[in-house]
Amino acid sequence: MLDSEILLHCVRLILGGLCAFAAIALCAKKRSASVICLLTFTLTHYARSVYKILCDLGIVTDFGPAVFGVSAVALAFEAVPLLFLFLGLAIAIFSKK
User: Fold this and answer.
1) pLDDT computed for residue 96 by the predictor
2) Could you give the CA distance from residue 5 to residue 74 in angstroms, rounded to a whole number?
3) Tens digit of pLDDT at every position of the chain (97 positions)
4) Beta-carbon count within 10 A of 53 CB
5) CA 91 to CA 9: how far, in whole Å?
6) Which DSSP string corresponds to 39-92?
7) What is the pLDDT of residue 1?
8) Nearest partner of 51 among 18, 70, 74, 17, judged by Cα
9) At what angle do helices 72-94 and 33-57 cross, to 10 degrees?
10) Using CA atoms, how far apart are residues 80 and 75, in angstroms rounded to an integer?
11) Nearest CA among 82, 9, 91, 95 for reference residue 40
């Protein structure tokens, strides 16, 4: 693995951890459906980053059934965070507050 890849992985983990911490702090302060969806987005996106790093290091391999040649786990890690981001933003847009 190249030094530049290690640096990118470290930056991704540190900034993802900071974002997760900030999202948890926001959720503790203001509990609404949109904030909870954004918290879920942040945590699943961070889990996706950790999964990709573990796959790059060869610690975890893609397993399970494949959907159109893509691992179902990898597909879920790509789709679920964006789904929660969309839900959080849609709830925030259409809320009556």
Assistant:
1) 77
2) 20
3) 678 888 999 999 999 999 999 999 998 998 899 999 999 999 999 999 999 999 888 898 877 788 888 888 889 999 999 999 999 999 999 987 6
4) 18
5) 32
6) HHHHHHHHHHHHHHHHHHHTSS---S-EETTEEHHHHHHHHHHHHHHHHHHHHH
7) 67
8) 74
9) 160
10) 8
11) 82
Q: What is the pLDDT of residue 97?
A: 65
First to last CA, the chain: 50
Q: For residue 41, what are its two tokens?
A: 């987005």
Count CA atoms within 13 Å of residue 76 on its CB side: 11
Q: Is-contact 46 17, C-beta < 8 A?
A: yes
Q: Which two tokens stand for residue 34?
A: 């949109």
